[in-house]
Structures are given as structure tokens and as C-alpha cells.
Write a structure and sequence with these properties.
With about 400 residues, this protein is of the alpha/beta class. It folds into three domains: about 1-50 and about 200-255 and about 355-410, FAD/NAD(P)-binding domain; about 100-185, no CATH class; about 260-355, Polyamine Oxidase, Chain A, domain 2 (Alpha-Beta Complex). The chain contains twelve helices and 15 strands. The chain has helices spanning about 10-20, 65-75, 105, 115-125, 140-145, 150-165, 175-185, 200-215, 240-250, 290-295, 320-335, 390-410, and strands at about 1-5, 25-30, 60, 80-85, 85-90, 95-100, 195, 220, 235-240, 260-270, 275-280, 285-290, 305-310, 340-355, 375. Strands 6-5-11-12-13-10-14 form a seven-stranded mixed β-sheet, sandwiched between helices. Strands 8-2-1-9-15 form a five-stranded parallel β-sheet, sandwiched between helices. β1, α1 (about 10-20) and β2 (about 25-30) form a beta-alpha-beta unit. α1 (about 10-20) runs parallel beside α8 (about 200-215) and α5 (about 140-145) crosses α7 (about 175-185). The longest helix is centred in the last third of the chain and has 22 residues, at about 390-410. The N and C termini lie close together (about 10 Å). The chain binds flavin-adenine dinucleotide (FAD). Flavin-adenine dinucleotide (FAD) binds next to α1, β10, β14 and α12. Flavin-adenine dinucleotide binds near residues 6, 12, 30, 31 and 224.
């Protein structure tokens, strides 16, 4: 069959790769000049240190099995670092605790009083069996199981916020429970932290484009689809964000709000961070990454850091210089004095959909009202949060749906 894929983010790329490998004649249509969608390297600017800054640090977990298989398929299975979950958490007093999946490590977590640590372990174990309702927040469920505000703030949010791009008090309980069960309560390797070691654009969009073309697909960059009627194909995969998907399919727009991610890249004249990554408690700088060390390109002098703030729309309103000062001060205030040599800001207002209570019913599956059109995207009904894994899974589901349509017709 001749299949057109609209959208060259991870969902569209995964669908296209699967379809071309199943023997279909695939054409991928992507509006931007680059592939990869939400997983991008920023356009180069004079004075940028190597490696070029990304639109935002991306982290995967060991349980992102389809995403990792996708990287293997496009020849990028060696472009990331994999480490056991042990996340340094830096407190207001600059003391460092760590979150890992073992209950013993939680009992040593220095950012909570001893009796609260025990309660965290109890709640963690209770989450194995707790019923998860999409109608309440994860925070409400945690409290019903006995968690205190302090535990939510100083333990659960550290883990939940980067995974769901929302705080526990904003995220759907169903998504919170899924995340904890899949990552923290699954096999040990499921919680492994996967960190890109290459610029995101090179190891996703560029590599996938090469793999698709080598497999015989046609890849059209800079080609925005205004209407599905302009496409001449036997089947179409619509792999674009929710609002655009609804427009192209002439459907009501799903009630899914966006949740932003703000990233600030900072080059300091001396090292500040002693680990490749760390969370900061009580700070708008939620996470900080040593980009130089993670990519194997430490600067000749100083340290190249990326600060990430997830799900805080107010930060979008702060102008670039003030945002840089805010984040740089957060780091130097806690980690020591240093001079800032260079900086760059990346704002992604629509980084993910906000999977708040009641959003499950808004996430549509691959099947559409049109007989030859299927849907994909991290926002769709994958069972996963809006992550890279969800995006790849949605693309594979779309390709399988097309396979089933073809089998049904034969
Ligand atoms: C800064 C940031 C940090 C993130 N961090 C993480 C993380 O740590 N871990 C994680 O798992 N996930 C993370 N995510 C989320 C993850 O990147 C996304 O969920 C995922 O990449 C979405 O893929 P997608 O293919 O569904 O959608 P998109 O990536 O949005 O792709 C859709 C594509 O469709 C194209 N398009 C739209 N309309 C049209 C049209 N009419 N015609 C043609 N093309 C069109 C767009 O240009 C885009 O390329 C992050 C996202 C951001 C922005």
C-alpha cells in the first residue's frame, strides 16, 4: 500500500519505519525543516559551546522498551548512557540525598525526617495494589494512602514531576500509579536512567531520516499538510499534536491542555555540580544536568550545565536575561560561586499534554472515523504518559492498525 505519514516527530518516525519495514511505500510529510518534533537540537548560534544545546534535556527510563528498540533500529543504540536509578537530590542546605528504587535507600533519604521515610516506603508498597482513578489527582491518592504534604513535596514530586511534567497534586492518579508501578516497582532494569550522549537532533530526527531513506521511504521536510484531501495515498497516519490532529480530521478538539518545559543552558567558569545530574529541592531549577560530562565534551575550562523546570507556566513569562539570572543564582547560591560565561534559554510552552484528572477520556486511539486514516502521537490513548515511549508506541500501534485494515480488505 502507499502510506503517507503526516508529522515527523517520534510517533510519525516510528510509524513510518514500521510501515516501510512491513513492505509499504511510505512518504513522510513534516512541516519543519528538521525531523524529530519535540526532540530537537536548537538552531546553531555563534558562540554556542560544543555540543550544541538541545531544546530541553530528555531522559528515558529502562522501561521505555519500544523507544530503546527504536534507537537500535535507527542505529543509535550506543548514543546514550544507561545507569542504575540513583538520583542525587540537593537540599536547601546543599546536603545531598539520593532517590533510588530500593526501600533501604529511601530509609536513608536525608531530606525527610526518619519516620516520614518509613511512611514513604509504606505508601510505595501500598501503590502496588492501590486502585487508581483518573478522576482524582495522584497527590490525593498518595494522601489517602497516608502520605504527608512534606513527603509529596520532598520525595514524590522529585520523581513524578519530570515523568508527568506536572506535580503530584496536578497529575491524574492513574498516570501517577502507572509511572510508579512501571518504573519503581517493576524489574530493577525498568528504573534505569537513560541519558542521551549525543545532540538530540542527531540521534533522533537525523538518524531516523537516514534509516527511512535507506529503507526506501520518501521523506519530505518543510512540507506542512493543510488538508488530508491533498494527500494521494491508500492510507494515512496523522501523527501530529492533538489540536492539529483534530483540525486535519475535522473532529472536535480534545480538552487537553499543554504543560510547558523551560530549559536554561549555562556555561560557568568553574565546576559546580559533582554528579552528571541532580534535582534541587525548593527551587525553580528542578533538575540540573552536566551537559559537558553527559555528552563526553566537557569544556576546556569550567562546566556546561542545563537547568530544567517542568510544568511551571509562570516561568514562560520571565524574560530571557531575568530567567538566566534566576537559574544561575539558584545554582551558585547552593553549589558555590562561579562566573557565568555564556547562556541560552529554550522555552517549550507545549512540551507535553497535561494529563490531569479526567483527561483519559480525551485521549483517542489509533482508529478514526475515516476508513483509511489512523491517528498517532504521544497525546493519544497509549496507556503511557506523554513521553518518548508513548510517542513511539503510538506510532507502532498506528502501523499495526493499518496492517489490520489491509488484512480486513484482502
Ligand atoms: C523540552 C522537552 C523536554 C521533554 N523531556 C522529555 C523527557 O525527558 N522524557 C520523555 O520521555 N519525553 C520528554 N518530552 C516529551 C516528548 O519529547 C514528546 O512526548 C514526544 O517527543 C512527542 O512526539 P510526537 O511525535 O507525539 O509529537 P511531536 O514531537 O510534537 O511531533 C509532531 C510533528 O508533527 C509536525 N506537524 C504538525 N502539524 C503538521 C502538519 N500539518 N503537517 C506536517 N507536519 C506537521 C510537527 O512539526 C512535529 O514535528 C519532552 C518534550 C520537550 C519539548
Amino acid at each position: 500500500m502507499r502510506v503517507a505519514v503526516v508529522g515527523g516527530g517520534l510517533a510519525g518516525l516510528a510509524a513510518a519505519l514500521e510501515l516501510v519495514e512491513r513492505g509499504h511505500a511510505v512518504t513522510l510529510l513534516e512541516a519543519r525543516p528538521t525531523l524529530g518534533g519535540a526532540v530537537q537540537t536548537l538552531p546553531e548560534r555563534e558562540g554556542d559551546p560544543p555540543p550544541p544545546p538541545d531544546n530541553g534535556q530528555h531522559i528515558a527510563l529502562g522501561c521505555f522498551e519500544e523507544y530503546l528498540r527504536f534507537l537500535d533500529r535507527i542505529g543509535e543504540g550506543r548514543s546514550y548512557r544507561r545507569q542504575r536509578l540513583s538520583l542525587p537530590v540537593i537540599g536547601e542546605d546543599a546536603g545531598v540525598g539520593a532517590i533510588s528504587r530500593s526501600p533501604l535507600s529511601i530509609l536513608r533519604y536525608r531530606h525527610l525526617p526518619a519516620r516520614e521515610r518509613l511512611a514513604v516506603v509504606r505508601v510505595l508498597l501500598a501503590l502496588r495494589r492501590a486502585g487508581a482513578d483518573d478522576g482524582e489527582t495522584f497527590g490525593a491518592l498518595l494522601r489517602r494512602l497516608g502520605a504527608s504534604d512534606l513527603q509529596i513535596d520532598r520525595f514524590w514530586d522529585v520523581f513524578v514531576r519530570p515523568a508527568l511534567n506536572l506535580r503530584a497534586d496536578e497529575a491524574s492518579a492513574a498516570m501517577g500509579v502507572f509511572t510508579v508501578r512501571t518504573a519503581l516497582l517493576g524489574k530493577a532494569a525498568a528504573a534505569d536512567v537513560i541519558l542521551p550522549a549525543m545532540p538530540l537532533g542527531a540521534m533522533h530526527g537525523e538518524a531516523a531520516g537516514r534509516a527511512l531513506e535507506a529503507a526506501g521511504a520518501t521523506v519530505c521536510r518543510g512540507r506542512r499538510v493543510e488538508s488530508l484531501d491533498e494527500i494521494d495515498a491508500d492510507a494515512i497516519v496523522v501523527a501530529v499534536p492533538a489540536a492539529e490532529s483534530a483540525r486535519l480530521l475535522a473532529e472536535p478538539e480534545p480538552a487537553l491542555e499543554p504543560s510547558p518545559i523551560v530549559s536554561v543552558h549555562l556555561l560557568f567558569d568553574r565546576p559546580l555540580l559533582r554528579s552528571p545530574l541532580a534535582a534541587l529541592l525548593g527551587s525553580p531549577a528542578h533538575w540540573v544536568f552536566d551537559r559537558g560530562a553527559l555528552t563526553g565534551h566537557p569544556p576546556e575550562q569550567g562546566q556546561y550545565l542545563t537547568v530544567v523546570a517542568s510544568g511551571v507556566p509562570e516561568l514562560l513569562e520571565i524574560r530571557g536575561k531575568a530567567l538566566v539570572e534566576l537559574m544561575a543564582d539558584e545554582l551558585t547560591g547552593r553549589l558555590g560561586r562561579a562566573e557565568l560565561l555564556w547562556s541560552r534559554v529554550s522555552r517549550e510552552p507545549n512540551a507535553t499534554v497535561a494529563l490531569r484528572p479526567g483527561t483519559q477520556k480525551e485521549r483517542r486511539g489509533p482508529v478514526t472515523d475515516r476508513p483509511n486514516v489512523v491517528r498517532a502521537g504521544a497525546w493519544t490513548d497509549t496507556g503511557w504518559p506523554a513521553t518518548m515511549e508513548g510517542a513511539v508506541r503510538s506510532g507502532l500501534a498506528a502501523a499495526r492498525t493499518i496492517g489490520a485494515m489491509q488484512a480486513g480488505r484482502a
